[in-house]
Amino acid sequence: MNQPLPATPPAIAPESTDKVLLLNATGKVGRNVCRALLEAGFAVYGTTRSANSALASQGVTPVVCNYTLRADLDRAFAESGARKVFVITDFFGAAKKSADLEFQQGRDAIDAAKAAGVDHLVFMSVADAEFFDEHVTHLKAKLALEKYLRESGVPHSILRPCAFFENLDDPANWNPLKKGVVKFLSMQDCKYCATYDIGRAAAIQLKNPEQWMGKTLDVIGWQGDLHQVAAALSKVSGVPVKAKLAMPIFLRRLLLKDLHHMFLYYEVQKGPRGTPQQFKKVLPNALSAEDWFRSHGKYANGERIEPRA
Ligand SMILES: NC(=O)c1ccc[n+]([C@@H]2O[C@H](COP(=O)([O-])OP(=O)(O)OC[C@H]3O[C@@H](n4cnc5c(N)ncnc54)[C@H](OP(=O)(O)O)[C@@H]3O)[C@@H](O)[C@H]2O)c1
Predict the structure, then answer these.
(1) Is the bond into 9 cis (omega within 30 degrees of 0)?
(2) Which atom, in ligand 1's list, is nearest to the CA of 53?
(3) Is the dihedral of CA 114, 55, 35, 93 positive or negative?
(4) CB of 90 closer than 6 angstroms to any ligand 1 atom
(5) pLDDT at 8
(6) Residue nearest ligand 1's atom 32 by CA
(7) What are the start-end ranges of the E strands in 168-299?
(8) 307 preceded by a cis bond (ω within 30 of 0)
């Protein structure tokens, strides 16, 4: 007698039907977190205020929503049906450089998640938020939101990224990546991560809630000074690369007091305390500087970073 044929495995793994709502999906972090969550098999819903966003072409279901407004958030949860959410708040953009406003916006996101019965909220905070001095106002809301989240009763985990590699190509903040030179606000040893790895870490937490619920993970992919960053780009591009300060330190101190004090924590106190080795226990192939330049693939003017033959 013929044995019944084994059932055809579903084209999509069961967990791939898990929906994740991503707040601020079109930002520098959001678009790479979208990519990582899609690759991990999640159905990704991304908030944007624009009805014509590029999210759909990326495979993300756009949810028209201003992620800083409570009513919009309630609608986004209802519309997506998502019970998992990735929460980003943004001091410089949406919160208009007000830590109080950033806190209110994050609190609304946590409250909306609670009302929607979310089973896992991943909050993007910042590494060592508790250790920066009082001048580093742009990180203050992150710590207050971590506390609010812990006390909210919403099932959650927290990601604490360090400096993004994306800062090395940031035309909006006057630091476009140009051939043959790499600039940053410090020449000294820094810890970096790719925003894509924030997304990959989020996917790991969302897929392993029993391991990660209530826990915090520092996202730190690589460590090196600016000469080592330049050497990495030189290796990837095949072009000699100079390392330069984006502005002299005295101007950094005068014009960017908040960021200057953040860099002092990196430079003087050698923070953040976590290491790439610790993060790689969770994500073994976390991107290095070389990996990041290779995957970024272009200079700010659109010219390709041609990989060395
Ligand atoms: N840079 C670093 O090294 C670093 C390190 C650790 C943590 N962080 C954190 O990363 C976060 C910044 O994320 P990001 O860089 O991805 O943000 P971003 O790129 O500045 O986000 C831009 C998006 O925000 C939305 N937006 C802008 N203004 C808005 C407003 N007034 N109301 C509502 N939405 C608005 C827009 O989306 P739509 O137009 O589509 O709605 C826009 O596409 C901050 O919390 C920062 O602390 C940064």
Answers:
(1) no
(2) 40
(3) negative
(4) yes
(5) 38
(6) 94
(7) 181-184, 190-193, 216-219, 222-224, 242-245
(8) no
